[in-house]
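User: My collaborator sent over this chain with a note saying "see what the structure looks like." That's all I know about it. Can you take a look?
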Amino acid sequence: MQPKIKSKVRCTDQEIGEIIRVIVDPLSQDISHLVVKTGGRELLIPTDQNVAACTESGVDLAFSSEALARFDLFRREDYVQVKEVEIAHLDRHLDVMPGEALVPIPDLEKNIERRTFLQRFTNAIGLVLALPLLYPVIRYIIHPMYRPFDNTWIKIGGADQLRELDKPRLIKFQKTVKEGFLEREYEKSQWAVKASPGLLEKIYKNREVEFRDPDGKIVWRNNKATDVVIFSGKCPHLGCAYRLRKHRRFGQSFVCPCHLSVFDMSGAVLDGPAPRPLDILPMKMSRSGEIEIIDVEFKAGKKERIRIV
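Assistant: Without extra context I'll predict from the sequence alone. Here is the result:
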C-alpha cells in the first residue's frame, strides 16, 4: 500500500503529524520522499529504510521522534508539480490531487547562471543568423534620422494677407512628406507678421539670423530688409501649439496654453518655462508676392536652437 495524503505519521514513540505532499522519482514513478508536517515545520523524509509500515490508519516510521532533527526542511522552490512535467497518469497512479505530488527540478535547471548563459548564447546566435534579414528593415526605419535636411522652399500664401503692421496671423498650408515609397500630405500652420521698423529691430537686433546644414554650411539668412517674419507654430518649450491672446499682464501676446509660456510680438519670452524665444523660419518673398519658407523644426526644451528637420 502506498502512503496517502493526510495520512497520520507515527514514530516508534509517538504520533508526529501528517503527510501533506509526496515526492516522486520521475523515472521509476515511485514515491521517494514524504513531506511531513510536524510542529509547524515541513520535513523531507526519504521513504527508503525509514518507513516501517504503511496501513489504512497511517504510516509508521522506523525511528523515534528524537531522530527527526536529522532530516532536511522541505524547500518548495526545488520541485515542480507532476502536471507541469507531464508524466502520463502519474497523479492517477498515486491517487493524489494536483499540487500534492511533486518531482525534483534537475540540478542543471537550478543553476541559474549557467542556464542564463546558455539562453543568452542561444539568443546571440539567433540574432547573428537574423541580421541579414533584419538589416533592410532597420535601415528603412533609421534612414530618416540620417537623411539630409529638406531645404525645399514652400509657398504658404500671399503677402497681401498681412495688411496691418505688427498684427500676427496664423497661416495654414499643406505640406507633402515622402516616407519611403509613399507620399502623404498634411496640414501645418505657422505665424506670420508684417513687422514695423521698431518690431524688426527687436527681432533682428542689427544682425542676421542664419540657418545651417548639419555640416555647418549656411542655407539662408534672414534680415530686416524683408518686413515679413515667420514664426514656427510650435512653442520652443515642448512643441505645443500656441495662440494669440490678450494677456491680463502683458496685453496682446502669444500664449502657450500647455505650460503658460508667454511671448511678445517679437517672439521674446515674457513669462513661463520656455527656454528660448519663438523660432524664426527661413523666409523670402517671390516676385509675385508669395511668401516662401523652408519648413525647419528645432529641438524643443533647449536654450540653443538645434535643427532636427
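A starting point for your reply to your collaborator: The mean pLDDT is 85.
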